Amino acid sequence: MRAHGADCERCALACPHGAISFSDDGVPVIDADACSRCDICLGVCDAFSSTRVTMADLHARIRRIALRGETVVLTCKENVFPGLEPAANVVVLPCLACLSPEFWTLVLAENIDVEIAADLSYCADCERAGDMGELLYSHAVETAEAWSGRPVGFTDIIPEKENLVKDLANPVGVDRRSAFANLVGDVGDIASGKRRLRNSEVLQEFYERRERSRALARLNLGNGTEFNDFVPEGRTKKTMWPKRQMLLEALDRDPGIAERVPLVVSETDCERCTNALACAAVCPTGARRPDPADGTLAYDARYCIGCGLCANACPEGAVDLVEVTAEALLGTGDGEAEA
């Protein structure tokens, strides 16, 4: 957006340590010494991505845990003390605020049993994210719950990595006979192969990739470059931003969510439009572009992020930003929503 002339500063405003500034050409610059790697910028802007894991990777991991039939437990590094080894169903984040409302909405729309294990009293003293982390995390979860109509669970306990002999050696809260019976059951699962199948990362990755491929096929997003004789470069590019794709996947799971999700998108007054295509020239996502068939303005609301660059560029003032719901994104998968 900024590379195309927008003046968005959400990342800089959200950064708890003022580590983000902007160069003369508008590109964000990160002060490595000031950055605490809280990943809050990932939750407020699609332009930022972790060097360790993307939101798509994180979502895939959560789905694999759910496919094993386990509850997904999310926590932050501030809540994991030395000596605590979280179980395989626990996802430890730098800060819970690195997850956007769209991410939470997708997880809830998929009916994934998800819980948060965090003592929010630690947020105030957190050197990584501070009060901004709690503020943004709470906003994201509450927004997703309102959009999806489903709740996020909370727990006071972070599950620890299982140990077959732990209960037998230290039978706290359980008698030795029950502890031994549990051990025998686990050993039986190992011998029969059930435990391997249940915990097989390869198997769960296969199921997750298959389900995700089906979801993306249903969305028919058409990302990538297409040949277009009506632009100087000879090709146009459509880019689906991660948060919008997550929202579309959530709508695919539950279309009823759409009416509860407010959006800002662009709208064209066709009577004033002269097809100058100035709006298409500045569109950072390809939501507006010349139709490869005849060169007239084509518009796909699913790619529109409401940045307003098109409204500023239109010489006829034919483009405005309007408030709609996500219902405007439904029913456009098989073609274009023409301007």
Explain what this protein looks like in three dimensions.
Helices cover 35% and strands 15% of the residues. It has three domains: 154 residues, no CATH class; 29 residues; 106 residues, Alpha-Beta Plaits (2-Layer Sandwich), CATH 3.30.70. The C terminus is likely disordered. Strands 4-3-5-6 form a four-stranded parallel beta sheet. A two-stranded antiparallel ribbon has the order 1-2. It has a two-stranded antiparallel ribbon with strand order 7-8. β5, α5 and β6 form a beta-alpha-beta unit. The longest helix is centred in the middle third of the chain and has 19 residues. It has 339 residues and is of the alpha/beta class.
Based on the model shown, name its key terms.
two-stranded antiparallel sheet; 3 domains; 12 helices; alpha/beta; Alpha-Beta Plaits; single chain
Alpha-carbon Rg, integer: 24 Å
Sheet/helix structural class: alpha/beta
- The secondary-structure element order is HEEHHEEHEHEHHHHEEHEHEEHE
**How many helices in DSSP terms?**
12
- Beta-strand content estimate: 5-15%
Strand order of the largest sheet: 4-3-5-6
Count of folded domains: 3
Uncertain stretches = 333-339
pLDDT averaged over residues: 85
Considering DSSP H and I runs of 4 or more, what fraction of the residues is helical?
25-40%
Total strands: 12
What global shape is seen?
Answer: globular
Sheet of most strands:
4 strands, parallel
CA(first)-CA(last) distance: 21 Å
Keywords: 4Fe-4S, Iron, Iron-sulfur, Metal-binding
GO molecular function: 4 iron, 4 sulfur cluster binding; metal ion binding
InterPro entries: 4Fe4S_Fe-S-bd, 4Fe4S_Fe_S_CS, Fe-S_Ferredoxin
Domain 4Fe-4S ferredoxin-type: 8-25, 26-56, 264-293, 295-324
